[in-house]
Amino acid sequence: MHIFGKILGAFFGFLFGGPFGAFFGLFLGHQFDKARRLNQAGFKTGSFGSGPSQTERQDEFFKAAFAVMGHVAKAKGQVTKEEIQLATIMMGRMNLHGEQRKAAQDAFREGKESGFPLEEVLERVRLSTGGRFDLLQFFLELQISAAFADGDVHPSERNVLHKIARSLGFSSDQLERRLRMQEAAFRFQQGGGFGGQQQGYQQSGQWQQASQASRLSDAYDVLGVSEDADAKEIKRAYRKLMNEHHPDKLMAKGLPPEMMNVAKEKSQEIQNAYDLIKKEKGFK
């Protein structure tokens, strides 16, 4: 627990300025302790306006993503093997090796520690991205994916996700909408809709292939539209999502290059859902 700065600040503040000085010193000490926590967690404490390079901002985004992922995984009190596997899968999808993989593993472990400064780290994410909506949305979706590692979101994980969403500037309604979309995407992937990467319903005699109606319903949820939406509304939702998740655009705005494959997979998921709906509706 970091209180050294607060103690010193309050002491010297009271010494030179009485009760008011103590209060002001306590505030300064709190800022000092917060900076120490961030430094110990591997995050830089310089302000966004001081001009960190693109590489430094990408590095901070990368570390924060895995650290917060570890924090979400720890929300239930014990990290499950599915959540550890998810982190490993994420590292594989990003093709992380050597020092990059070690950095991701270290950040994930830091996020699981009891004193992890979640709010401070998320504030750094907002600053390092310049508050760009699509990058913050990508970050939030990574954390939602972590929560869905075992196919369900525990109430304590949901609470943490709400804290993350608020800190990144998303409302509770926006988070719940993305949770529904991710849940549908999880089922859609299991039905073979995610670029053929997962074939859960097709690989075993214990599982039957998802019905066309069920997969179609999930496809609508992936795009965030109702099943009675017309072609114009569906196309508008599709284009908006593709614009927000376009890998090249995300890279240009500061997405770490290691996460390019994840962005590509998300775009492919959106494309697959749209293609299924378009085929069913019969429009071009």
UniProtKB/TrEMBL annotation:
The keyword Chaperone appears for this protein: yes
Name of one Pfam family that matches: DnaJ
Major site of localization recorded for this protein: membrane
Side of membrane Cytoplasmic, spans: 31-284
Function: Regulatory DnaK co-chaperone. Direct interaction between DnaK and DjlA is needed for the induction of the wcaABCDE operon, involved in the synthesis of a colanic acid polysaccharide capsule, possibly through activation of the RcsB/RcsC phosphotransfer signaling pathway. The colanic acid capsule may help the bacterium survive conditions outside the host.
Subunit structure: Homodimer.
Protein name as annotated: Co-chaperone protein DjlA
Organism: Vibrio qinghaiensis
Taxonomic lineage: Bacteria, Pseudomonadati, Pseudomonadota, Gammaproteobacteria, Vibrionales
